[in-house]
Amino acid sequence: MDGTMLAVVEDAGTEAWLDQALQGLGRLEKVTRSDLGRVLRMLEATGASVALVEMTDRDATQSMAVINALSNARPWVTVIAVTRIADQETVLQCMRSGARDCVIVGSDGAELRDRLRRHQLVRPSHWGEELQSKVRNLTMVTAVTPQIDSAFFAQNLAVSMAAQRPGQRILAIDMDARGDTVFHSDSKNNFDLGQLLSSPDTLDETLIDTALEEYRPGLRLLAGGPGSDFLGDRGADLFIALTRLMTMFDHIVLNVGAVSQSAWVRVIGVHVRELLLLANQEVPVVRAARDNIADWRPYLASNTDILVVVDGYEPAVPPKADELGDSVGAEIAATLPMEWKQRLEAINLAQPILESAPKSGYGKAVKALSARLMGNTKAQSGKGWLKRA
């Protein structure tokens, strides 16, 4: 067996044993589990066909989450749990999380090498060397600058999606929620993503249906929670929670705002089907949008759509929409008129603009975009499509 293997290890003793046991079998790259985004990126960058994940009693939950995330992101990779004590319960937990085998630190190196060779003979074929989640029904909404209200847009997008697909289950998550409200609504934030992650074992449809009332038929809203930080050690928990939520809902709209959007893309980029980037016609914002797209592309699946939405669009002011598309290197999926009066009324009434001003240009543009996203249709040609290598 030749090639690269990835070891997700914390303990120096475990690392030393792996170096010795796998000597001559291939190149062994190492990374800690503290940053799941980096682990996934290393898996992609190295093209590793084997991932060995250290399992410890002290951090068992985090270890299981990493195993689950790796096996979900790249199902064709052989994930092996590495532990010091392999009792029956530990082995079962590892297998349920997605590991294909469990080895004990200090065991015979020749046996480990033989087991890895056998796993490689029967491992499933991959579908192209790319990072991709098994289930991809997530639309991420972000903004180049905090001056652009991505929460207002995401709320109306989710409402429109629910209206266009009666009977489907849609979840809208607002990481920019403030106080006890979520998005610009009158829904109270009694349950948030932070609470959900504090007890991941209880996450099921019964909990969601009980904790989150329908905001509109088929649509539920979830806040991120005050001071929530899911981008460090809790990145694995977030990855797993979203994986579960994506199996419970037909579609998820996630608003991450403009503050930590790059970190979000790194952590959960493999889940994203469409990434909607809100920008405006200001030249510095256009340049920032172009740089963001270039930075984010490596963390997304090759078939993820990066779409730019121009907020507060003034057709009489350059650059025009087609010029913006060429400048940022992505399709301009929608242009939203400012219509400040209608927006302010909707915010103050705690209603979607689709309901408070159903004839507004903003609402019509959101409806057209949501119809495209829910129909999973793409333009066949034209300017502005993302330029890929």
TrEMBL record:
Which part of the chain is the Pilus assembly protein TadZ N-terminal domain?
Answer: 2-119
- InterPro entries in the cross-refs: CheY-like_superfamily (IPR011006), P-loop_NTPase (IPR027417), TadZ_N (IPR031580)
Membrane-spanning segments:
none
What's the protein here called? Pilus assembly protein TadZ N-terminal domain-containing protein
